[in-house]
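Incident log, structure service

09:12 report received: a user says their structure output differs between two submissions of the same chain.
09:20 pulled the input from the user's history:
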Amino acid sequence: MTSRSAITAALRLSEKLPFPLKRLADLAYNYWWCWTSDRIALFQTIDPQEWERCGHNPVAILEAASYERLTQLAEDPFYLKQISALAREFDTYMAQQDTWVSRVAPQVSPDRPIAYFCAEFGIHESLPVYSGGLGILAGDHLKSSSDLGVPMVGVGLLYRQGYFRQRLNRHGWQEDYYLDNPFLRMPIELIKNEQGEPLTIKLEIRQRQVKVQIWRVQVGRVSLYLLDSDREDNDPIDRWLTGHLYGGNLETRIAQEVVLGIGGVRALEALGIQPSVYHLNEGHAAFCTLEIARLEIERTGKSFYDIEAKVRNSCVFTTHTPVPAGHDVFSPDLIDSYFAQYWPQLRLSREQFLALGARRLGDPWEPFGMTVLALRMCRACNGVSELHGQVSRKMWTVLYPQRSEDKVPIGYITNGVHAPTWTAPLLADLYNQYLGEDWKTRAVDPQMWAKVDEIPDEELWSRHLILKERLIAYTRYKVKKAREQRGEDYKLIQASDSLLDSNVLTIGFARRFSPYKRGDLILRDAQRALKIFDDAKRPVQIIFAGKAHPADEEGKRIIQRLMEWCQNSGILNRVAFIEDYDIYTGQKLVQGVDVWLNNPRRPLEASGTSGQKVCFNGGINCSVLDGWWCEGYKAGSDGKGINGWAIGEDAHTSDQELQDRIDSRSLYQLLEEEIVPLYYDQDAQGIPHRWVQMMKASIKTNAPLFNTDRMIADYVSQVYVPEIATRVEPILAKVLL
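09:34 re-ran on a clean worker, output below:
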């Protein structure tokens, strides 16, 4: 059923294309194209301006292109050869049977795939159902699962308006707005039943029957199913259940989590998919454990406690944040209003049901926690870095009173990034030459990455400069467009054309603007910062991007302070803020900056992955020792960083003012005494050889470890199929060979 509907979408589009271009329809409906080396030219060539207008949506641009333009391309031999070569590569990829997982864990069968549940998925900017790190990680998880041949299906929600869009007014204040997603012109397909009607599942939400339909997104060999309540036969309020990502109040949140968890399991049942493992990526999907239990009780007639162990054995859980606000909790009254008709189906009393999500049993006012439910109902749990595993064990000791902290059953698998997605094609081409054309399939091999030393300094540096120039051009375009929309002074708009300089040391800072991430730490001593950035001989420039949650007033104030700083006459051309951060902007940033800045309060950064993306592009991290950087940072015998810099002291303190003071001083000192001098130590040809050596160290020490091929191999051997753990380690360095 599902494959036929996907083929129908591609066939419907191909009918509009000249015969030589028909394979473009197949490629457009599978996001595999977005991590190929030809991803830039394939669809952009059709109409570069329309490509920008449609948000890099391959289906939309093929729909919009005139037949005259398409016939021009159909007689272009170079373009036809490109399509033919890419179509052959795609067909080979999709048909591949001898994959890493087929050799290492053949018991993971396509008939019993891993079901990966997440509230957001960041696959590509043309599918805006993500907000930030959690979604990008989920998208990369699916991509590497596809590459390694791991049988997997994703389960999420299709949001009518996705996450909010961002614009800044003339006072630098973030304004939030939303746009409808054009589902019928996106690379997604509505699943239909044998009668040609949308396949739906039913949910009871606050005594109302809600119908939810299912859309399919193809991510290489992995299918992602997204649930959507925006149907005419639903109550108007229910149509908006899947309206916004992380929008609305607690009622909206719990309703969405019912759709994701309970609806997700029912959708898989309706599709005839029987997972071997349910992977809950964060607690938003924890209600799925209850629906698995309900179905088992319905099938067997047994009690909840009789089948509890079986349910737990099929579920695993990844927790992503030590920040309390990141763990959803709901009042008993709210649980009553959503589940009073549900817990009898589990053969549980109200008290027994509430106990599943209670940190402390016996307290009638104890809220129902989604993370608590997941920890109780899953056989395995992991944090997303070694430090985060430690923090999580301490955080959840209350659930394991009979165990010491180090015995709390929460492990860790450090996050990674999908190398083909985040590595600039210009550098991928360089890796083809010096590491071998199979480098993408050997991302975990440290011996291969050691060959980075063979790349001539001038060649790596020249390509890096091209990428930096591209980033600066993109930043100028975005800033100029934003100033025009705000109605800024004409001179300020024109000044955008001279913003930033590719010869200047360039720092990037892009992430969610939450107070604990300290987006304005570099401004703590504004005069000292100004002196660093406005140095006549060795200037520094910085590019900011990121959003504050609509309800986060302090996060918005941080952005406003940055925007005010941007207007300082001494650094007017040295500071830029790119509005409406998305995957495309993120790619340009991580591929073009010299230094990636990350300065959260310890130990609140669970992992972080943006700095990992920088490494694949030769960028260098300057970060607090938190999250993944605790594992990535390498210091020499002199105590200085070999592959980047560590901000502040490796110490945790509850005194935020003290930590901010220590870290800001450390950051200024690193810039003044190490980073700036190293960058401007250049030879007569303008090549900073010692800097380039650190670029190479950043690549070869981090790339083999912090990629999603390694991460997925860890999930397979440690979580999905732990019985193969003893076999995988010797093979791990040869993933995909």
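09:41 both user submissions now match this output. Likely a transient worker issue. Closing.
09:42 reviewer note: The chain is about 45% helix and 15% strand. Residues 730-737 have pLDDT under 50 and may be disordered.
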